[in-house]
Amino acid sequence: MSAHADATGGPATHIASGEVRRDVGVVIVAGGTGSRVGGTELKQLRWIAGKPMLLHSLQTFQAMAEVAMVVCVLPRQYAGDPPPWIFQCDVDRLLVSVGGKSRAESVANGLEDLPPECRIVLVHDAARPLVSPEMIARVITEARRGHGAIAALPVVDTLKRVAGDGRITATVPRDDLWRAQTPQGFPREMIERAHGEARAAGTHAAATDDAALCESLGLAVHVVRGSERALKVTDEPDFARVEALLPLPE
User: Fold this and answer.
1) How much is the pLDDT for 33?
2) Which CATH number fits domain 3-245: 3.30.450.40, 3.30.450.20, 3.90.550.10, 3.40.47.10?
3) Can you spell out the DSSP letters for the chain?
4) Which of 126, 193, 231, 235 gets the most CB atoms within 10 Å of its CB?
């Protein structure tokens, strides 16, 4: 399934407080077509603020001492022959996996390729290049407590339900509503169970995020504070917004 850059985990690193557990595996989902952006170039491979969008996230995750392996899930036509810039990182902690027909299938493919030492799994969308080390650390800390964890932000805008003709039909209470971001983190056995049971039930392809698969089984998922900077690149104007937030490399 995978085009391996290298299947070995790097040596454990140390920080001032002692030895770090390098047991976190990361699946970066970059297997989509990005059709809403338009054009022929995949949005996750487009250059933004001096480097390809995917590389921003890849290098940020590999800078985390806890991360043992990062799996980048790419469309099939790129997985066998990845762009050379993807190797501008720690290749000992990089795998390339083949994307599936749905986001959930792509995540499942990435999960299968993580080495056994990865007992905590983070799933991240390549379309969020501004993920910060602080966000990642909060998700890892919460997932280590034995349940799911997602970065998210409380909804602050007034929400309206709108009919097809543009007419407002209701105002939706925003109390207790949060906007999900990534990364989303889980104990490995939890996320593997969620994907496996969704496949068996025939609901796998419809999942929009991994937390929803866990929620459907009654498994606990908690939110940690996300960031307004960690916006998702969905439409063409989003590229300019990210450019404004990311400094160019010196």
Assistant:
1) 56
2) 3.90.550.10
3) --EES--PPPPP-EETTEE----EEEEEE-----TTT-SSS-GGGSEETTEEHHHHHHHHHHTSTTEEEEEEEE-HHHHSS--GGGGSS-GGGEEEEE--SSHHHHHHHHHHHS-TT--EEEEEETT-TT--HHHHHHHHHHHTTTSEEEEEEE--S-EEEE-TTS-EEEEEP-TT-EEEEEEEEEEHHHHHHHHHHHHHHT-STT-SSHHHHHHTTT--EEEEE--TT-----SHHHHHHHHHHSPPP-
4) 126
Q: Cα-flanking dihedrals φ and ψ of residue 112, to 5°?
A: -65, -25
Q: In degrees rounded to 5, what are phi and psi of residue 3?
A: -100, 105
Cis peptide before 183 (omega within 30 of 0): yes
Buried b (16+ CB within 10 A) or exposed e, 22-41: bbbbbbbbbbbebeebeeee
Given a cut of 90, is residue 148 above it in pLDDT? Answer: yes
Distance CA 82, CA 3 (A): 8
Express each pLDDT in 67-106 by its tens digit: 999 999 999 999 989 999 999 999 999 999 999 999 999 9
- Determine if the pTM surpasses 0.85: yes
Domain ranges of the chain: 3-245
